[in-house]
Amino acid sequence: MRRLSTLVRASSDAELPPVFLRLLSVVRTRTQSAESDAVTQTSIVPARPEPPAALWLDGGTLADGTGRDPVRNPGILVEAGRITRLGGTRPAGAEVVDCSGLMLTPGLIDAHVHMACAPFDSSLRYDVSVADMAADMFVNCRQTLDGGFTTVRDTGGIDRGLAGVVAAGKMPGPRILQCGPVHSQTGGGGQMGAEWEPTHLWDAHAVPGLVAWALLSDGQDELRKNVREGFRRGATFVKLLVTGAVVAISTQQPSDTQFTLAEIAVAVEEANAKGTYVTVHAHNNRGIRAAVTAGVRCVEHGSQIDEQTAALMSEHGVALVPTLSIMEQLVADPASMGLAPSYASRLSEFARTARDAVLAARAAGVRVGLGSDLLGPDQRDRGRELVHRAKLETPMSALESATRVNAGIIGLGDDLGTIETGKIADIAGFAGDPLSEPEQFSDRDRVALVVQGGRVVKSAPRS
Predict the structure, then answer these.
(1) β-strands 54-58, 76-79 pairing
(2) 266-283, pLDDT tens digit by residue?
(3) Residue 12, exposed/middle/buried by CB under 10 A (0-12, 13-18, 19+)?
(4) Could you tell me the residue ranges of all domains in the chain?
(5) Greatest pairwise CA separation for the chain in angstroms
(6) Which pLDDT belongs to residue 253?
(7) Which end of the chain is more exposed for a tag (fewer CB within 10 A), N or C?
């Protein structure tokens, strides 16, 4: 084709042999047809619109995420995507959102999600198509935003692909911070293949641009290289698995400790060099203490934290992101993750100790965030984590954990987590009062309004 085009440019039609004239006619016809049908990617999926120049949220009751008592009829002015004023009168020309009857809160933050996790047994057997996995991820993103969660921190399962698609406005979803593939030792909690699967086949389970499970490392040098590889792929923080997992796919157990102190310290060194941090999946106290000593900044789950470990975490300024929802979900229905009914009693004990760990951490002065850790294609009930925490503590403390505290843990405390001047305008509006009736946190139909970055992304009709 290129040779014919070159010949055409060098000669007039009259100079070409008949066979070339017939070929040229076909080429011109196809080229004109292609040009007339051509559509740019931008026109297929339009870019996210800019927020209005000025947005005025009128009426409602404000629980601003700081723990202060709610305020009626606050009046919130948003300009260029940020909150510029609380109170006063509506400025001329501002777009008005009627918030009467709504409880306004900061956009919720889930600090422990797995947007990509299909049921492990099916996805690792290749029983789930890439198309199905992608579709489930897109639905999860939309449902998450619909439930008032405007930001999430993905702690393993996706790579930069999904986060980039949402950030570009090609599909609705929360702001996503992601670690890319988690880091696990060989045979650790991140290697979820069957025990008879040769380790050298593990990497084949990843789907570049969509799914990234775990990079396996043994020794300081290999872990350093893989942490750097994770950053090359766009990770914004590092996650290590330093104990076994509750849902044990292979031969590892929650009582196992994984990675040495020296290995964890290497990951911390690399994260510090990138201006970010290391968080760790950890259940047992030995693993948590080693990680804290090595310099990590956050512990995920922490279901067996005792008073001594909580005191050590507080001393070193290490945060905790407990994940109660997944425990409760698996106790109620182990089969939803392909687990035998016998797992229920084991998981029930972990659910109990996880609640005790939250209270121990609170008593020690540890910053306690909030994460759902939901797994599988159906993650509609993300707000259930606030319900569990409200029952364990108070609805206001649950809201603070899901907003101000989580924003600080994920490194966005200057921009998100509270409704204050200067902050990005991420706001959720509940038709009701979840501080009086915490079950409303898990009812997506109660979320009548979602503002993300100063744009109204959900405005449900109200009676």
Answers:
(1) antiparallel
(2) 999 999 999 999 999 999
(3) exposed
(4) 2-38, 43-106+422-463, 108-382
(5) 92
(6) 84
(7) C
Torsion of CA 361, 364, 369, 370, to 10 degrees: 30
State pLDDT tens for residues 343-367: 777 788 889 999 999 999 999 999 9
In the three-class reduction of DSSP (H, G, I as helix; E, B as strand; rest coil), residue 60 is classed as coil
pLDDT at 98 over 60: yes
Q: In the predicted model, is pLDDT for residue 300 greater than 70?
A: yes
Strand, helix or coil for residue 416: coil
End-to-end Cα separation, the chain, in angstroms:
63
- E strands, 71-228, are 71-72, 76-79, 82-86, 95-98, 102-106, 108-113, 149-154, 157-158, 175-178, 182-184, 211-212, 214-216
Question: Would you state the CATH architecture of domain 43-106+422-463?
Answer: Roll (2.30)
pTM of the model: 0.89
Structure tokens at 235: 């990770």
Task: Tokens for 146, please give them.
Answer: 């619909």
- Where b means 16+ CB within 10 Å and e means fewer, 292-330 reads bebbbbbbbbbbbbeeebbbbbbeeebbbbbbbbbbbbb
Q: Comparing 105-119, 322-336, 401-415, 443-457, which segment has the lowest mean pLDDT?
A: 322-336
pLDDT at 120: 63
- Minimal CA–CA distance to 209: which of 165, 270, 239? 165
> What is the CATH code for 108-382?
3.20.20.140
How many whole angstroms separate alpha carbon 46 and alpha carbon 64?
A: 33
In contact, 306 and 285? CB cutoff 8 Å: yes
